[in-house]
Amino acid sequence: MSVGSAMVVSIQSLHPVSLCSLSKATERPVPKLLNPFFLSQSSPLHHSLTSTSASHVSTLGPTRGRAISMSLQMEEAATELEPELDIPSVVEITIPPESLAGFEADYERVSATWPADLATTVDDAKIEQFVSSAHALARRWLPQEVVSRLEAFIFDPNEPAALVIRGLPIDKELPPTGLDCHVKKSGSCVSETWLVGIGRIVGQVFTLKYLRGSRTGMGLLVRELYTTPDKVESISAEGSRQLLDMHVDFFQVGPELFPNVIGFMGIRGDRNKEGKTLLTENRKLYRMLDPADIELLRTEKITWGGAVFSFSAHVIEGSESNPRFNIFEENLPGVGGFENVVKGSPEAVAAYKRVKAIAATIVEGVWLGTGDVLLLNQKKASHGRSPYAAKYDGYDRWLQRTYINTGGFWQAGIVQWPSRTVPYP
Ligand SMILES: [Fe+2]
Q1: Residue 126: C-alpha distances to residues 117, 183, 200 (Å)
Q2: Ion ligand 1 residue ranges (Cβ < 5 Å)
Q3: Disulfide engineering: 119 pairs with which of 23, 186, 283, 403, CB 3.0-4.6 Å?
Q4: Is the pLDDT of residue 385 over 80?
Q5: pTM, two decimal places
Q6: What residue ranges define each of the domains in the chain, with the CATH number in brackets?
């Protein structure tokens, strides 16, 4: 692939994150300012906003129609925009520490009731107790404006593809990044509480049986993403030096099991800020495609087939205004590479190849530091990871991940409540 870190658009460098003036609605009166929080947005819209002479940047919904509050100057800036620039790919919210001043004591009180083996248990009842109380903690301590935004994220088509919440306090003592780090961290589950609690506000957190293994804890709900020396060249979440190209996780599993949203929690950011989660927003990609390729990939399926797997899908689905893409990373370990795995008519395969190549040219990068959460809507964006230089000294990049959808697997009888582990494969 032709994409490297140099092509990654850094949201941080283009759009400095503004400090918020968020208030915890339950404890403090809101907003001294008309706008309850500042956002950093990865779009020209943000340039327009920040370039005004307003003394503060207003909270802005992702579309003109959804502006939560907007000064007159903002309104003027927004009306000058072309429609296609309306919705940013990423909206960032920074939580000020003072609004979470009592969180730690509340967490200690609640977590004292959790089972001692929470990090490693696969007992559904124990996991549900954790999910329920993490949900309550997150709702109690996040500002109401943020809770409302999270509740809209999966359901409102005008919400952005990605939401970043920065500044959450996590575990004070962290073990070195590396094997079994989550087990070594057990007894203190603050990051998992935020990740699962926020995920539960967005929808239903769940996992696939496929993900069982040593890097998964909390009843498989939380997956640890970090690199190890033996995987340095691996094209996967476990590698570091190679690009993990744009893809959509588990699009092949069907609607009830599809991870609609991926939640990432930053435990340690890459110290050089090279290791980022990449995303390509679907509407931006769609607009760059040849209409003939769109037509072909909406009507002809691609089959991905290897020695132990085979599945087919239309590469492009969804509406014109909210198109969906089914993009696979054919270079994952054991998959076999594009030429060996992708099957279909020569025209459709060539069109799919063009989609992947174009997707790689419009990536945006999100660096996650300690206590930063990224929610990524897989119906609105594909994702990947930029290459970075790991040192394997215990201080490399470490993220946690969970999957979120609306719990259709229970209604479909695929698993019984309260199990959150669905049978794939
Ligand atoms: Fe992925």
Answers
A1: 9, 17, 16
A2: 249
A3: 186
A4: yes
A5: 0.82
A6: 88-281+362-422 (3.60.130.10), 282-359 (no CATH)
